[in-house]
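User: Second chain of the day. Same drill as before.
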Amino acid sequence: MAFLEVYFPRNQPIVEAIKSQQEFEYKVDERDWSAVRLLVEELEQELAERRNHLLFRITAWYFALKVFKRVESEKVVLREPNERDSKYHRAILAFLRGCGEVLLVELSSQQDIDTKSVGISFADMAAMVEELRMAERELYGDMTHSRREEILTDVFGQT
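Assistant: Same format as last time:
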């Protein structure tokens, strides 16, 4: 049985499966990047093989993004990330952004698909992808730390 089938049984509507997943309490621990990696690998395979409906792939991406955001919050936002956390965060952030962009392209070419049926409008999905793009640019862009400090000092004065 595929990993996503455990979380999205074929006999349960996707919207209900997402709602039931949002209700569980999730504790972040050291193996979390491995869990996110498993989701990402499954998503990557789904996107490459295109064996499931576009709405299923969007839902899988959304679920992977939600798990990533939980781990990101605990490992990168609420504390100073270690080297391993930074590497995984950067790689998975880039992957999810790229997948989101591909899904947006596919979705924009489909006239008969209404993403609202899974609880995500096209505009909401585009905003999520843009948020990932901005986070990637902000955290891992070309600007050096010293240049950032220089700009902040010039704009806001002494910090």
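The two ends are 54 Å apart (CA to CA).

User: Great, on to the next one.
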